[in-house]
Design goal:
The chain is an alpha/beta fold. Helices cover 31% and strands 31% of the residues.
Length: 226
Amino acid sequence: MKILAIETSTEFCSVALLMDDGIVAKEVHAGQKHSEMLLEMVQELLKTTQLTLHQMDGIAFGAGPGSFTGLRIACGVAQGLAYAANLPVVGINTLEALAQKTAAHFVVTALDARMGEIYHAAYQKITRFNWKIISPPMLCSPDNVPLLPGHEWIACGSGFDVYRPKLAAFYSDTIQQIHSGFHPHATEIAQLALYKFREGIRLNPADASPVYIRNKVALTENERKV
């Protein structure tokens, strides 16, 4: 299969093209310029691989959680490209993409959600590109993360970078290692999408949507207690 993947859920912007003989990828630190850079990066990647959009079997995007603006950009661009080439799409959870970056079998991931909170999830590897959810994606404070079974966990993501002392202390008997500097990347988005497409999991472009988890950018203190 040939899968084009895009990921813009953080300050990084990445694109990847998965083919039978491997993956070609490109990433830049975009800051707030994802919308200005993404399509050009896609065009450069297709030119590098000497492929066209119509030769793809599907398009994958980092569906979230993450930056509200970044998620909308990734979803919108994926929909536009898919409409143009009559292709199916699939959204990949960014927390699962973080787990895919590791070589571990039990991974707990966390992304900094700002406002003193994190996006948190935990996964167990089933096959090379397939994960079982152990703790579902959620929004929580670093003081209220869920317990995890066992003692073989590897941790990664910006949530662990920002709140490392607190989370390391809470998971002191659970986590073996914390990887620093991990962020979602289109390479892992493409790998996870390969499994989904092969299993027949795909969407029409119109049905694609981001995974926000937090429904509002800012919540009042009373709303957080509900």
